[in-house]
Amino acid sequence: MDMMRKDIHNSEVPVVCRSCEARHGGVCGVLTPQQLVELSKHSTRKVVHAGNEVVGQGERVASYSNILKGVIKLSKMMADGRQQIVGLQFAPDFIGRPFHHESTLTAEAATDTEVCVFPKPIIERLVSESSNLEHQLHNQALKELDEARDWMLTLGRKTAQEKVASFLYLIATHLDPEKGESMTYELPLSRADIADFLGLTIETVSRQMTKLRKDGVIQIENNRLVTVPDMDRLSRAAGND
Amino acid sequence: MDMMRKDIHNSEVPVVCRSCEARHGGVCGVLTPQQLVELSKHSTRKVVHAGNEVVGQGERVASYSNILKGVIKLSKMMADGRQQIVGLQFAPDFIGRPFHHESTLTAEAATDTEVCVFPKPIIERLVSESSNLEHQLHNQALKELDEARDWMLTLGRKTAQEKVASFLYLIATHLDPEKGESMTYELPLSRADIADFLGLTIETVSRQMTKLRKDGVIQIENNRLVTVPDMDRLSRAAGND
DNA sequence: GATGCAATTTGATTGAAGTCAAAGAGCATG
DNA sequence: CATGCTCTTTGACTTCAATCAAATTGCATC
Question: What is the ipTM for the molecules in this complex?
Answer without folding.
Answer: 0.91
